[in-house]
Write a structure and sequence with these properties.
It contains no helices and 15 strands. It has 166 residues and is mainly β. The radius of gyration is 17 Å and the shape is globular.
Length: 166
């Protein structure tokens, strides 16, 4: 009780995949700090479970559903004039976008914190799963896409990790 546990995250090596991973520390942590991972350089993060992401200054909850669908929910109080929750079916739509561009599925045309295409969710046919990509297939966003780290995430070259106070 009298000792503090300042650990926020841990990095470990998995022999089977020969990869390093980062994950939140699952021990006692009274600091209320949150671990975020920035997607950069074409990093394609597979969506295995519900994820919380920040794109621009808006928070989204993204959930892959069993029927190859993707549910995207705008959790921010700002910009709720648009439909806050949408479900996309991979059989008819393989790419879902968030950005300033009017053609984006979640469009924030007057929001200066967004790139034209801030974040893309793509359905990977080979692995039969949705993935999160910062920006578009050809260009990263200016400010990046941040994923709230609740589980193990593979570490990639030049990955950025930040700890925020809650």
């Amino acid at each position: 009780e009298k000792y503090s546990y300042p650990f926020i995250f841990m990095i470990y090596f998995e022999k089977e995949s020969k990869s390093y991973f980062i994950r939140p520390y699952s021990g006692k942590n009274n600091d209320n700090r949150i671990l975020y991972v920035k997607l950069t350089n074409g990093y394609r993060l597979p969506l295995k479970q519900k994820e919380i992401i920040t794109a621009g200054n808006i928070i989204f909850q993204v959930t892959p559903l069993e029927n190859k669908s993707l549910e995207v929910v705008n959790l921010s109080k700002q910009s709720l004039s648009m439909i806050p929750k949408q479900t996309f079916d991979a059989s008819s739509k393989k790419e879902v976008t968030i950005g300033r561009n009017k053609d984006c599925d979640f469009s924030f045309p007057n929001n200066k914190s967004f790139s034209r295409i801030q974040t893309t969710f793509e359905f990977d046919e080979e692995n039969q799963e949705w993935v999160i990509v910062d920006g578009s297939r050809t260009k990263s966003s200016t400010n990046g896409t941040w994923v709230y780290c609740t589980h193990s995430i593979p570490i990639k070259d030049k990955m950025i990790v930040e700890v925020f106070n809650n």
